[in-house]
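Renewal narrative, Specific Aim 1. Our central claim is that a sequence can be written position by position from structural information alone. The example that follows is taken directly from our test logs and has not been curated for this report. It begins with the structure tokens describing the chain, in the order in which they were read.
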């Protein structure tokens, strides 16, 4: 059985991009694999977070995992900060990664662009991500397209460690969906849909009300022309909306195209609004029940306990390989 690990930052309202690009795949993978799904709160603080909001969003992400169908009886759901080994292995990884490698990370460039002062945590973020994955010797890492570069670096670090200290880490593989790996902003298809975007109309939040969803979709930017045709190079905006339709309705892109042959953008967007509402409404209902019951705290406690036991074992092995004197 393969080990799968992934996580989402509690850094904003989770979007349809996070759902399609990440969570939907987590749900699929839990049946056949040994899964660890974290809320990566240590990553969220690489950009300033307000403490009260961080706490609320952390609980929100965990509850959304469960509401979306991740079953705590089959997968480990936990908060990254509840497993101290992540921070410890992260330091060890920081000593292996090269400055030039970190400087090449496009996410760092994007998130630091135009900022007067940038925390060092944002720069060394990929070392923490490598630690997250290697701490469980994960085989597969389901991520959206945007995380591919970080995963490549994790693979390099695993290889570097194995080369220097002897075979130890599994070199992880990315698991990237064919459709929906990069859901783009509703107002600009050259940018990915992002939960920390200051423009609310650019994303659909998983917890948006039906009216908000319909309104945002009706206002989404569309390419010139009128035909509903999938071609990301000439029709990026409509193609993005078609990917969302395909993922939310569970039909192929080809079928979406057939369905709207001879119809205009207006009719397509109207139906898309209903398809997204139908995909999110049952999940939202479960979400509010989970929050109301308070059960998420027990789920997180059990998940962290299981994660800590695996993480401690791997970290002991790493420290031994690196030459640390064992504690008595
Ligand atoms: N637009 C997207 N399309 C497909 N997948 C996406 N993911 C994020 N945005 C999209 C996937 O969601 C997972 C969690 O991402 P993250 O929390 O680590 O942060 P991120 O990749 O930086 O995503 P965001 O939403 O843009 O967060 P902020 O704004 O806080 O940086 C990952 O698997 C990611 O690929």
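The sequence written for that structure reads:
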């Amino acid at each position: 059985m393969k080990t799968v690990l992934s996580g989402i930052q509690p850094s904003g309202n989770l979007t349809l991009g996070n759902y399609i690009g990440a969570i939907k795949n987590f749900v699929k993978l839990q049946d056949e694999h040994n899964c660890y799904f974290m809320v990566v709160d240590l990553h969220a603080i690489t950009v300033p977070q307000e403490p009260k909001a961080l706490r609320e969003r952390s609980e929100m992400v965990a509850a959304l995992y469960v509401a979306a169908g991740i079953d705590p009886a089959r997968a480990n759901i936990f908060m990254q900060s509840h497993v101290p080994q992540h921070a410890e292995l992260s330091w060890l990884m920081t000593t292996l990664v090269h400055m030039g490698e970190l400087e090449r990370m496009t996410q760092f460039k994007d998130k630091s662009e135009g900022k007067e002062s940038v925390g060092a945590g944002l720069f060394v973020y990929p070392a923490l991500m490598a630690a997250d994955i290697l701490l469980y010797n994960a085989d597969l890492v389901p991520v959206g397209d945007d995380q591919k570069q970080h995963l490549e670096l994790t693979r390099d670090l695993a290889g570097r460690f194995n080369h220097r200290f002897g075979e130890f880490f599994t070199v992880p593989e990315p698991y990237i969906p064919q459709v929906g790996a990069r859901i783009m902003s509703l107002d600009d298809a050259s940018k990915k849909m992002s939960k920390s975007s200051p423009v609310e109309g650019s994303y659909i939040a998983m917890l948006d009300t039906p009216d908000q969803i319909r309104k945002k979709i009706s206002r989404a930017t569309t390419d010139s022309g009128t035909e509903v045709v999938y071609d990301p190079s000439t029709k990026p905006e409509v193609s993005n909306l078609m990917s969302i339709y395909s993922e939310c309705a569970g039909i192929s892109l080809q079928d979406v195209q057939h369905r709207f042959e001879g119809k205009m953008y207006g009719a397509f967007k109207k139906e898309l609004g209903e398809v997204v509402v139908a995909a999110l409404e049952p999940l939202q209902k479960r979400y509010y029940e989970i929050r109301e019951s308070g059960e998420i705290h027990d789920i997180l406690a059990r998940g962290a306990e299981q994660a800590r036991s695996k993480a401690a074992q791997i970290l002991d092995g790493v420290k031994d390989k690196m030459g640390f004197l064992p504690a008595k």
